[in-house]
Automatic annotation (TrEMBL):
Alphabetical list of PANTHER family matching this protein: CLASS II AMINOTRANSFERASE/8-AMINO-7-OXONONANOATE SYNTHASE, LD36009P
Gene3D superfamilies, per database record: Aspartate Aminotransferase, domain 1, Type I PLP-dependent aspartate aminotransferase-like (Major domain)
Cofactor: pyridoxal 5'-phosphate
Protein name per Swiss-Prot or TrEMBL: serine C-palmitoyltransferase
Keywords: Acyltransferase, Membrane, Pyridoxal phosphate, Transferase, Transmembrane, Transmembrane helix
Any GO molecular function: pyridoxal phosphate binding
Transmembrane segments: 191-211
């Protein structure tokens, strides 16, 4: 690309606070294509706002500044210091690293594991060690940017299949086995399937290259494993968002589907979501892990994980496994699962367009119009709710969305307060687009949640004329605004007599 003079049409008063870089492409002259990258100069206001956090990945609440993990981390800091100041291959290996790696391997059900100080580089700097130009990578089209970058750095042939589409995956595997390499048609040395446990899903556009990461959908792991075995391929599973957040024991998507974790050749995850720390891991057979200890760029050149972060992860995993504070880990996992389904059910009741699996802690709500996206974010902030909004170019132009992240640290009262704000703002800006009926699983949750309001199937102390309509909204989901109707019908004195939550 060559730099070109900025067209006069771009010279406007906004240029004082927006720098526009225009590059003329090497496309066909008739296209006259330009790419414009706008950089808006933001500045901090210097103010502080206390808001309810529905934007960060603190799935199990271990990122909170109090509790047993914090106490153990404080002791580790006093004993080992804050930094290590060396790589793992030099003088940067602590006894905590060995303890953490053994614990991670046990937790995910693999033979061995190795940990790294950064989750992004766990993918981007280790994939080039696993595949090369004689290999083929079959990658989901919504894979995270770190996976895309790692595959490109490896030099391997990259084939993308449609998101979670097993038929398309099998077709690409068939072609890769039958036809081999593009020009010589020699067989590949290795075929590696690269997928994620939970797709967290936005599409980022950089110089005509789409990089993906945030849908809230869950991988069809049993089907992927079956195809892997059928075509003699290897499986690389990124569990950044699923480890700790899925399954009865919090052990990820393998636990969620009840499959043998040893069927996953390379299991990767991060410690930034469910464990309230930083870094990543790769787990697999011992031969693989020993190879990465010697050949990984991350191990050779990257500074090792600081002791406080390692201790934070050790403490949180031990709690999840029940080795410390028995019952606490199970309680958090169960609470997270209940919070996710309740939150999603209430969003469906508002007739918002909600993406993703009902058990995914990543909850995208489609807004469509970029202007409404900004309005939603600012209005929620004014009302005390902190959210993450994603628009173009991080998504396609018409798929702007709000991304909520649910945590076990959210109490029912906090979720109800957040949902009241979401309902109010959604009605104000008009994003209740969905015409679909409420899903059956959501109806069951909503009816169960409202069961204390009913006597013989009818709401207590409510006018008979509205009882039938309210009950219909719960069972069929046909009332477009049952929440507002409920608020109009339930009187304050009724709440006091029946002990009804204030959000009703």
């Amino acid at each position: 690309m060559k730099n070109n003079v900025i067209p006069n049409s771009l010279n406007n008063p906004l240029s004082e606070r927006i720098n526009v870089i225009v590059c003329k492409t090497n496309f066909h002259p008739s296209l006259s294509a330009y790419i414009c990258f706008s950089i808006v100069h933001f500045s901090f206001t210097g103010t502080k706002s206390k808001v309810l956090n529905l934007g960060s990945y603190n799935y199990l609440g271990f990122g909170d500044p109090t509790g047993p993990c914090t106490n153990a981390t404080e002791k580790a800091t006093i004993k080992f210091g804050v930094g290590v100041a060396s790589s793992r291959q030099e003088a940067g290996s602590l006894i905590l690293h060995k303890e953490l790696e053994d614990l991670v391997a046990e937790f995910v059900g693999q033979e061995a594991a190795i940990v790294f100080s950064m989750g992004f580089s766990t993918n981007s700097l280790n994939l080039p060690c696993l595949v090369d130009k004689d290999c083929c990578v079959v990658s989901d089209e919504l894979n995270h940017t770190s996976l895309v970058l790692g595959c490109r750095l490896s030099g391997a042939t990259i084939r993308r299949f449609k998101h979670n589409d097993m038929e398309d995956l099998e077709k690409i595997l068939q072609d890769s086995v039958v036809y081999g390499r593009p020009r010589t048609h020699r067989p590949y040395k290795k075929i590696l399937i690269v997928v994620e446990g939970i797709y967290s899903s936005y599409i980022f556009l950089i110089m005509y290259v789409y990089l993906h990461s945030m849908e809230g959908s869950i991988l069809h792991l049993p089907e992927v494993i079956a195809l892997k075995k059928k075509y003699n391929a290897y499986l690389y599973l990124d569990e950044a968002h699923s480890i700790g957040a899925l399954g009865q024991m919090g052990r990820g998507v393998a636990d969620y589907f009840g499959v043998d974790p040893r069927d996953i050749d390379i299991s990767m995850g991060t410690f930034t979501k469910s464990f309230g720390s930083s870094g990543g891991y790769i787990a697999g057979n011992r031969k693989l892990i020993d190879y990465l200890r010697s050949m990984s760029y991350n191990t050779v050149y990257g500074c090792s994980m600081p002791a406080p972060l390692a201790q934070q992860i050790i403490s949180s995993i031990r709690i999840i496994m029940g080795k410390d504070v028995p019952g606490e880990g199970e309680r958090r996992i169960k609470c997270l699962a209940e919070n996710i389904r309740y939150f999603r059910a209430r969003l469906h009741e508002m007739h918002l367009i909600v993406y993703g699996n009902r058990d995914s802690p990543v909850v995208p709500v489609i807004v469509y119009m970029p202007a409404k996206l900004v309005a939603f974010s600012r209005r929620c902030l004014e009302l005390g709710l902190g959210t993450v909004v994603v628009g173009f170019p991080a998504t396609t132009l018409l798929l702007s969305r709000v991304r909520f992240c649910i945590s076990s640290a959210h109490t029912r009262e906090l979720l109800d307060r957040a949902l009241d704000i979401i309902e109010q703002v959604s009605e104000e800006i008009g994003i209740c687009y969905s015409k679909q009926p409420i899903p059956e699983w959501a109806k069951e949750i909503l009816y169960k949640d409202k069961s204390h309001l009913y006597t013989n199937g009818f709401l207590k102390n409510i006018e008979p004329s509205v009882n039938k309509l309210l009950k219909k909204s719960v069972h069929t989901g046909t009332v477009s605004n049952s929440i507002s109707l409920r608020k109009r019908c339930l009187k304050r004195d009724t709440n006091e007599k029946c002990g009804i939550n204030t959000h009703f």
